[in-house]
Amino acid sequence: MREADGLIDLRSDTVTKPTPAMRQAMAEAEVGDDVLGDDPTVRRLEELSAERVGKEDALFVPSGIMANLVSLMTLTGRNEEVILGDQSHLYTSEVGGLGIFGGVFLHVLPNLPEGTIPLDSLRSAIRRGVYTPKTRVISLENTHNRCSGAVLPLEYIQQVAQLAQERGVLLHLDGARLFNASIALGVSPAQIAEPFEVVNFCFSKGLCAPIGSIVCGSRTFIAEARRTRRMLGGGMRQAGVLASACIVALQEMVERLAEDHENARYLAERLAEIPQVRIDPQRVQTNIVIFEVDPSTGWSTPALIEVLKKQGVLLSQSGARLRAVTHYGIERPHLDRAVQVMVEILRS
Ligand code: TLP
What is the DSSP track for 173-222? Predict the structure, then answer.
């Protein structure tokens, strides 16, 4: 744990390290060549994952970005487009890979602060004309990273699904933090995933596995996705050593995400007490806290991150704002200390 070194690492839930149970499972994992279909542990993880989200099959991939690429490159062809939000991870943080590798047009619409894309904008954006790319997929993100970890309401997802069905468009979910959404809504991940053709989620964020994400969909889709993964160089050989940790993540680490959510809300409320901080704690529904410091203080976001780091508190930048993410190993005293450091810096 970074916290043991005296550092309070709130940059991301990706900094979590494998638990002792994961390390033991990794050491003992039964493995084979997964590209040849011989790794029983990977197969088991794929079956368990598909079952958890109510899909027929699943495919293990190394990262969330590759999960997005595999999903969307399999769903689309050239001359087609994916509609997605201007605050989506796919658009802001994946180096434009979908456009570059997939030859797919990224049709970007503004996200509202709650992570949704208004239904009317979606409706008028879908296109089929001779002059335009053909809209093939709408991609949503849940929870929404840049929108303070917002959870998309089930009702909204249903409305988008109805529109997609009416207009013959497919739905993809970047569910990197799908289990955070399910815990926050108090519904199963399968309920959230139900209207989406394809859903991906990550084991290597709040669930603490060292590496790994998964793409879930129909059996025929996953067979095709396997070819896309191969094309991207994402086929892994004795990947059971990784999949074994992901199985532990699924079985043991989901319920505790609720603690991260409570801690994030606590942090947001404490930050809101600092006069120079701008934050609405009500927006914090899961484990991501995004806030600003009044520019009249003279502090820029990068300068604040630098000075906080010198005091042992690590934050990251989300757009122009500051981001703190709660996770396994972060407890209230760490958050109190982080807030105290922030108060001292802003007072000086
Ligand atoms: N997000 C990371 C950074 O890249 C910002 C983080 O620290 O939050 N989808 C979503 C919604 C994500 O938040 C991320 C990672 C990914 C995809 C990509 O996952 P990886 O990093 O495994 O490729």
Answer: EE-TTHHHHHHHHTS-HHHHHTT-SEEEEESSSTT--SS-EEEEE-HHHH
Closest C-alpha to ligand 1, atom 21? 64
pLDDT tens sequence across 93-148: 999 999 999 999 999 999 999 999 999 999 999 999 999 999 999 999 999 999 99
C-alpha 277 to ligand 1 mean position (Å): 26
* Top-tier CATH class for 20-252: alpha beta
State how far the Cα of 54 lies from the Cα of 179, in Å rounded to an integer. 14
| Domain ranges across the chain | 8-15+256-347, 20-252
Closest C-alpha to ligand 1, atom 20: 64
The fourth-level CATH superfamily of domain 8-15+256-347 is Aspartate Aminotransferase, domain 1 (3.90.1150.10)
Residue closest by Cα to atom 17 of ligand 1: 64
Instruction: For residue 27, give the 3-state DSSP assignment.
Output: helix
Per-residue model confidence as pLDDT tens digits over 218-244: 999 999 999 999 999 999 999 999 999
Pocket-forming residues, ligand 1, beta carbon under 6 Å: 12, 14, 63-65, 89, 93, 141, 145, 174, 176, 202, 204, 213
